[in-house]
Structure formats: structure tokens, C-alpha cells
Amino acid sequence: MYKEKLKKLNEWEYEIPKEGEMLVPGKMFSSSALLKETDENALTQVVNVACLPGIQKYSIAMSDMHVGYGFPIGGVGAFDPNEKGIISVGGVGFDINCGCRTLKTDLFLKDVQPKIKELVDELFNSVPAGLGSRGKILVKDLNNVFLEGSRWAVEKGYGTEEDLECTESHGCVDGAVPENVSEIAIRREKRQVGTLGSGNHYLEVQYVDEIYDKETAKAWGLDKNQIVITLHCGSRALGHQIGTDYLKTFADASRKYGIPIREKELVCAPIKSEEGQKYFSAMNCGINYAFANRQVIAHLVRQSFSKVFPGQDVKTLYDVGHNTCKIENHKVDGKMKELYVHRKGATRAFGPGREELPKIYQKTGQPVIIGGTMGTSSYLLVGTSKGEEKAFASCCHGAGRAMSRTQASKTWNGEKVIEDLRKKGIYIKCHSFEGLAEEAPDAYKPVEDVVDSIHFAELARKVCKLKPIGNIKG
């Protein structure tokens, strides 16, 4: 239905015109080919979000968009608390602050390729992964993790000050209130700090295959064939339970405040309400927990590298989330506003000069990490000022699913996926063959097309392409 109503603004931007209950238009940053294959239900979700109170400018979806809970995955919505704006679990997702961290080494492909099996085996043994996995670190007081995020991990010896400098929000957001996290969520946490999890989460050894922006790559200390490591994970069972708890709270709040809801996962509350602020504070606990989780995993990666390649220095390039709601200042109709920006499967992508960025990225803009598949490639992009104007400094977060997990598991065999990838020179270790089948490379959209759409729409600019040589899946 909505595909027929799409208005083409240019080759990379499409609009669903405002109509009916919509408060703003829908805006898609994508190619015509990708949109043609997009599920109609994802576009319906874009329209549903456009009907929520206080939304600003557009209900946005990125080139990796597909159906999610409430918001589409790849969805962005910014809300003004002074215009009865809302906050929504569906706009953040259940894996709060799921995100990526890329680490860079001084090693090159020629150094690591002969030892890739040894390295991946060591990483597999060192980094707990898989459904329900438990970490090696006992956290006696989770409140400290909720309040301090990555800072807690660094003070425990799991990292450096430089890691904090190169993490979004320095690895800790304000406004976390541990008392607003349920006992059930805390019980479900089950010592998961420093664990990778399952599903689409991964730890991947990569090399810089192609450089598009030499000046930015040089500023970031990246060269062709250089080895980097990217890890992708979030807040584990804790974040999921926070989302589950507040979904119930928001179902009541939506009725209480008379907010019309077009899909049950879009239940929400006014930002300024007691319910809205409680969720925001609990979500911030989840954000900080996820930062700490990735910080500890990075420490375990360093330990593994030092065993296989003694004396090597592994540094954080950047760590950024893609399931968050953040308070940010953005210009709307020529006026600067403080907004609550929901990014659901969408990455923050600040351009040069934003005060939130560390000094080392003030000139270039923020590194943006786009995960591909274990059989294709991933990308590093850099945020742009145009992206701030067009999409509240947001862009895609990955390749985006083209096929459901159920379909993928029926189509592929996990052991065969491993065999096929090894023939391509990619060594895979996993905890679940079924889970691996769900993540088969062909179950995703072509990541090159997804990233090109973002690049040519000027939301973020391509810096380099990363190709995998080793991967760990839960």
C-alpha cells in the first residue's frame, strides 16, 4: 500500500507524504532496488511512528530497514518533550545499547593470516559466547555498573583511559537510576558482563581491504591490509528484561494519557511523565551495562592477542551503540531544540565539530561502524554535517535482514555455512549450528548497496571496507 505512495525526492531519498493521522512525513534513505525488496509492513511501521505525539520533522528509516517491534529496525524518531513528545520501548529495542566496538592493531594480513586458526581458537576460549553464557567476572554490586558504565570496567583494570575517550558518551550516560531496574532484570543478568551472547552478535577479525577516504583513514591510523577486530553485542538478558518490564508499564500509560497506539509494541508514555522518566532512567542503566560489557570483552580480546602475538598493542578505534534513546540538540525549522532521539537499529553519526566527540575526532567527524555479514564485508564510515541536518545525525547500522531467522534456518545448514566460508579463507567458530544457519550471509541484504545508499545520501561518508578472516558466533 505505502510503496505505491512513495515519493522519490532523489536517487537516495524517498518520502511517504503526510496524511491521515500522520504528524510528519515518512522519510527513507535508500535505493530504489532496496526499497523494492522492503517488506510493506516495515513501511507501515514508519507511518505508525509518524503518528506519535511530539515527533519532529520525519519518521525516518535507513537503507537496512526491516520489520521490528513497533519501530522498524533501521528506524529513527526524534521527540520534543515540550510538545508532549513520547518515549517508547519500541524505539529503542529490547537489546538496549546493542552496538559495535572496533579495535585496531599494528598487525597486517600477512602477519595474522598464517595464525588465524590459533587466534580465533584462543578468542573463542577466552570470550564467553552463546545463549545464556556467563562471564568470568563476578560483579558484586551491579549498581556500580549501572552508574559508571565503561568507567567501572576500566577502574577494575579491564582497559585504559584511552578506551573511554574513544567510546560514545565516554562509555557512560547520565540519568541512570538503578532503583528503576526490576529485581527480575537483575536476576536475569546472571553474570553476563564480558559475554558476547547469541543471534547476530559476533567477534570478528578483519583486515582493511579498501580505503575510500585516505585523509580520514590516515587520521584514524588505518592502512590497507591492517588488522582490526570488531565486536557486536549489547546489554544481554538485562536489557531485554528492562524492555519487557516497561512495555507493560507503557501499555497502561498509553491508556492513561490517551495516546492513540496503532501497534501494540508502540505503547509509550510522555517523556515528562513519571512512567517516561522511570523508563529513561532504567534504559540508561542498560546503556551503561552494555558499554561495560563491550569494554570487558575488549580487554579479553587484548589478552588473547597478546598470547598469540606477544607485545602487540590493541587500541580502541571507536565504540558506538545503535539501540538507544539519547538527549541531543538538533536544529528543527531553524531553531535549536533539545530532543529525545530514538535510534532503533540505527547508528549515531555526528559530523565534525560536535562537542560530544572526543578531541581526536573533532576534525574528522565520528567513526561509524557498519557490520556486514561473516561472508562479505563491513564498513567504517565517518559522520557528516549533512547527516545532522537530514537525519538527526543518524545512519544505518548493518546489512539488514532480507530473510527471517526461521526461513534462514530452514534454508541453510550451519555446518555447511562453516565449510563454505572456510573455502573463502574465513575461519568460523560457533556455539550453535542452528544459530549460525540463521546468520548465513545470504539471509542479509547486500551490505555494499546498503552502505552506498547512506554514502550517496550524505548521511555518512565511506572511509574503508573491512573483510573478515575469522569470526566467532554465539
Chain-wise SSE layout:
Layout: E1 7-10, E2 13-16, E3 26-29, H1 32-36, H2 40-50, E4 59-66, E5 73-79, E6 86-88, E7 99-108, H3 109-112, H4 116-126, H5 142-148, H6 150-155, H7 161-165, H8 183-189, E8 202-211, H9 214-219, E9 226-233, H10 236-256, E10 268-270, H11 274-308, E11 315-321, E12 323-332, E13 335-344, E14 347-348, H12 359-362, E15 367-370, E16 378-383, H13 385-391, E17 394-395, H14 405-411, H15 414-423, E18 427-430, H16 433-438, H17 447-456, E19 460-473
Q: What keywords describe this structure?
A:
474 residues, eight-stranded mixed beta sheet, alpha+beta, 25% strand, 17 helices, tRNA-splicing ligase RtcB, 19 strands
Describe this structure in words.
The longest helix is centred in the middle third of the chain and has 35 residues, at about 275-310. Strand 15 and strand 16 form a beta hairpin. Helix 4 packs across helix 11 (about 275-310), helix 8 (about 185-190) packs antiparallel against helix 10 and helix 10 (about 235-255) runs antiparallel to helix 11 (about 275-310). This protein has helices at about 30-35, 40-50, 110, 115-125, 140-150, 150-155, 160-165, 185-190, 215-220, 235-255, 275-310, 360, 385-390, 405-410, 415-425, 435-440, 445-455; strands at about 5-10, 15, 25-30, 60-65, 75-80, 85-90, 100-110, 200-210, 225-235, 270, 315-320, 325-330, 335-345, 345-350, 365-370, 380-385, 395, 425-430, 460-474. It is α+β, with helices and mostly antiparallel strands and about 475 residues long. It has one domain (about 5-400, about 445-474): Alpha-Beta Complex (tRNA-splicing ligase RtcB), CATH 3.90.1860.10.
